[in-house]
What we know:
The protein folds into 2 domains: 5-180 and 396-413, Phosphoglycerate kinase, N-terminal domain (Rossmann fold, 3-Layer(aba) Sandwich); 195-355, 3-Layer(aba) Sandwich (Rossmann fold), CATH 3.40.50. By secondary structure, it is an alpha/beta fold. Strand 10 (282-287) and strand 11 form a beta hairpin. Helix 10 runs parallel beside helix 13 (259-273) and helix 14 (310-321) runs parallel beside helix 15 (342-353). The strands form 3 sheets. Strands 1-7-6-2-3-5-4 form a 7-stranded parallel sheet, with helices on both faces. A 5-stranded parallel sheet has the order 9-8-13-14-15, with helices on both faces. A 3-stranded antiparallel sheet has the order 11-10-12. Helices cover 40% and strands 15% of the residues. The protein has helices at 38-42, 44-49, 73-83, 96-103, 120-124, 130-134, 137-143, 162-165, 177-191, 206-218, 229-238, 245-255, 259-273, 310-321, 342-353, 364-371, 386-392, 398-410; strands spanning 5-6, 16-20, 54-58, 88-90, 110-113, 148-151, 173-175, 197-201, 224-227, 282-287, 290-295, 305-308, 325-329, 357-360, 380-381. The two termini are 22 Å apart.
Amino acid sequence: xxxxxxxxxxxxxxxxxxxxxxxxxxxxxxxxxxxxxxxxxxxxxxxxxxxxxxxxxxxxxxxxxxxxxxxxxxxxxxxxxxxxxxxxxxxxxxxxxxxxxxxxxxxxxxxxxxxxxxxxxxxxxxxxxxxxxxxxxxxxxxxxxxxxxxxxxxxxxxxxxxxxxxxxxxxxxxxxxxxxxxxxxxxxxxxxxxxxxxxxxxxxxxxxxxxxxxxxxxxxxxxxxxxxxxxxxxxxxxxxxxxxxxxxxxxxxxxxxxxxxxxxxxxxxxxxxxxxxxxxxxxxxxxxxxxxxxxxxxxxxxxxxxxxxxxxxxxxxxxxxxxxxxxxxxxxxxxxxxxxxxxxxxxxxxxxxxxxxxxxxxxxxxxxxxxxxxxxxxxxxxxxxxxxxxxxxxxxxxxxxxxxxxxxxxxxxxxx
Length: 416
């Protein structure tokens, strides 16, 4: 794991601990009822580890101006139900009400402060450096009434703000259980995976997937990269296959201003690493609501390409079976349509049956694993979404960088 302090490095019983979490959740547009509480469930292991501390939770919900920007009272209630113990909502972020609530806490008590994005600094200092973040009012005030800081907000680890990455100089900072697991698994995926290493990259976010592919291939980490879904369609196009005006237009429109640079990345991938790419060898298109199989020789397709075909899955099976590590990020198909779920479900089945160290990236693939109750069949199911993509691409992760900076500053002087 990257050099960060974890909860195994400290005894925080009786201490006042600030715990930054990402419990930003989809809410019903009218009732504000939780449509998915998986992010709240994901932080329960950390809260249980801190059961004997004085826990001050910092969190956000949406952004100012959006319809789902709310206070955190419902989150406190839902967390209380899930944890089986009361968590008090405090309608303040770092003013007198919040400070007094923190100072009067008893051992074992947990409180959730109000939506930190209601505090202007949290939104205004996204590009600030470590010193400016440390000098922010919210960090200065909260650090004076706390002994330690724990970050368990991996889903926001690619973001930068005072409550996410501003405490590294003021308090010893620790990775929570979720954060530590994410760092550990994804560091394995990008630095030292068991071999052979197979990366299956799909979904519609072609630019992100191409950045991941090039990061893994340029550093000779991945042995095989398997583009599927819209990413696979783009790679076929870059390899000289005309995939059809409609399919090409979809890729152009979805990428917008990044189309040219992303297509260049795809072409570079083909040019430099063609021997390490396993491109689709057949596809499935939709005609009159029916699934129709086509070979590459039948391209261009005038209908939408919604899945990979059986021959592609047959080629992929031995690659996954013989792998030492498999990373999967992004579906292979328009799997919300029943006729086109086949490719994605078959890849999921192959991964669950594999003896390899298996990592499923965030977003749709992670949700699919959870929905089908297969979390125990993979080694790591990332909660990260954008953070997972950013880390796999080798791009900056401000939260992890701040945890590493705090570790360097405080590791030899921990008083816990």
